[in-house]
């Protein structure tokens, strides 16, 4: 009754509404099912006692956790990008920058039902650059505002909240993407992405300007998270653009920096849902295939996509409290890591089964 009267405050993104209250009640059943039927007693107790924390336990049996998408999935194939989902009208590939960003925003709303965590796009300034050539500065500015507003005004996430989303930006086309065929208006190939470095910078600056300006009341945009990739040579070459990002930091505090400056750091970093993936050039290399070769394949293959099936946190302070000495601490840590690995393998097997049985129609969809 208290929940009905006062609503749910599980996170800062939830407001009181019928959906959030119903969502809270349904979660109690899903949590109990996972603890009693999916996890063994040792795994369940570890979560309940706080030794570990299984994030989004309520979706353990049905949904992967988070995903960062390659925008070309939508730019190349329209919305939705799969042909095996009959419950939605099909739009062809966008013919303009404005329609392209609307499609990208809508996809983050459509796909919410198959993930339990954050969703976003990688290299968005690169992949939208071909749509920007010949477009006025005003239209570029308004299109970037449109992308941010459309994403913020979709109350389609769990419990009627705004989706937890992100976009990663670079001021220029990364070396690994320069020679890749560029997708432009109506899904047609128009050169290579390396031909659109100037347009990439325009988008980078326009996004920063939009985040600095905020909404109609000057309030910051919490989503999509503004992820900015930085390299030593980029800071020198695009100093005015990065100084503008610093202004955004000072006034709004919204940017997230993906730091590729250290010599040991990979040339390729992907991030989603507050997690970082270092991959050398392993993932980006898959994107060099000719678009024709991607047809009739699983939608996730051969695109720059990264994500995680499940997130489990280890309670390190608790292990220190439980341990009698340093050796004992590392023994406990090893045991909990083994337990966590077992849980993650279990989640892998569950999602693999769900993909085969059609429980995740978009994730298992094909492009024809």
Automatic annotation (TrEMBL):
One of its GO terms (cellular component) is anaerobic ribonucleoside-triphosphate reductase complex. One of its GO terms (molecular function) is ribonucleoside-diphosphate reductase activity, thioredoxin disulfide as acceptor. GO terms for biological process: 2'-deoxyribonucleotide biosynthetic process; DNA replication. Transmembrane segments: none annotated. Pfam families: NRDD. This is PFL domain-containing protein. It comes from marine sediment metagenome. The lineage of its organism: unclassified sequences, metagenomes, ecological metagenomes.
